[in-house]
Each structure stands twice: as C-alpha cells, then as structure tokens.
Amino acid sequence: MEPISFASFSLAALLASLPANGEVISKPTITTHISPAIAGQWEVDLDSGITMTKEARARQAASEDGQAVQSEAPKSVAGTEGGVLTQDEKRVLSIQSDANTNLMASVKKANQCRELYNFAADNEMWTVSGKELTYGRYLVTHREEGLPVIAIKTIYDNNEVDCSGNQVDQSDEALIAFLNHDGDQMQWCADPDGNECFMNFNRILP
Fold first, then answer.
1. Predicted confidence (pLDDT) per residue in 176-202, tens digit
2. Half-sphere exposure of 35 (CA within 13 A, CB side)
C-alpha cells in the first residue's frame, strides 16, 4: 500500500496551485483539472467504517476465485421437510408474524448527525456539520495510474461544535486523499488502488 504522505506527487505543489480568493490565474502551475463530476452537495456516511472500492472488491474476488479449490461434494437439491431445508447447510424456516410489532421507518431523524460537503465548480468548497462551518479550496488531479487525487486546504473554520460534539479549529489544515467517484457515490481512500477507503459520500444535490 502506498501511504498518502509518500505518494508520487507533492502536496505543497498541489496546494500552491490553488488560487487565493479573488486571485486571477494567468497560467497553470501544474497539469491538473477540476473534476466537474464531483461538483454539488454530498453527505458523509458517518456509519461506514474502512471499506474498499468496487474495483478493489472485484480484484480481491477474482484473486480468491483463482486460488479456490474445486469441491468434490455432490450438488445438493433443495427440498423441505418439516420447515427445514434439506441441503448441506440446514436453515430453519420458521417465520412467525406479530401484528402487534411496531415497525420503525429507516428515515434519518432530523437531529441525527449530518456532515454536508459542497464542492463548487470554481475550486471552492464549504462544509456544514452541526454549528461548525468551514470554507476552503479543493483541487482534483488525475494520475497516469491509480485513482485521482483530491487535495483540500481549509481556509476558514468558525470553530463551533460539530454534529458529533467535537470542537476543532481546522483553519489552515490540509487534507489529501485518493478519490473514487461513481455516479452518486464517492469515496476518499488512503491508497491509489482503493483498498482502504475511510470516507463514503452520497450525493444530495447536483
């Protein structure tokens, strides 16, 4: 795995290429471009842990299939006897309904912790989490191999409490990650192959 801090690009060069507020860009300093595909509003999936991209899962599955040993066990035919499947692995199919059970909808509650990221088409971004509001600049650069890279520099943080109860001033902090984007899903990963993705996003608005 290639650590972010030792990846084949310079964070300083990426961040230095971001224009300051109101600065007119006369010529590009490095070969990059904004990914318009991520422009819009995204919500962080705070319940997700370390995951991997679909491509990484497919590579892992293909690798495991290549190493799998053919089973000599005969194919089983499904049948039922006394509410039990007659297969190699038996599972009880006793299902009882309870009309008195109250069903809960899986809609997020209004007071549930939500972090919203807004990416504009002009390299500007802002985030909202509870009472915390941050503003910064972002840049996406595409590499010859592996996932693209997103670099974010936080310019302003109002230093209020976020939705999870933390209060951290992120002004002047920088973040860099490998970016996996597919339609209305986005992941930030720690490696260029997408084996360890630490943030998952769902698109809210275009």
1. 999 999 999 999 999 999 999 999 999
2. 19
Short-list 46, 58, 79, 80, CA closest to 165:
46
Terminal CA-CA length for the chain: 33
Cα–Cα distance measured from residue 90 to residue 79, given in angstroms and rounded to the nearest whole number: 11
The predicted model scores a pTM of 0.61
CB 143 within 8 A of CB 174: no
Per-residue tokens: 21 = 């507020």
Q: Which two tokens stand for residue 78?
A: 């499904």
Alpha carbon distance 120, 51 (integer Å) = 26
Instruction: Give the angle subtended at the CA of 194 by the CAs of 193 and 198, to the nearest 5°.
Output: 145
| Residue 72: per-residue pLDDT | 52
Helix (H, G, I), strand (E, B) or coil at 95: coil
- Copy the structure tokens of residue 152: 């974010």
Can you give the pLDDT at residue 47?
79
- Helix, coil or strand: residue 56: helix
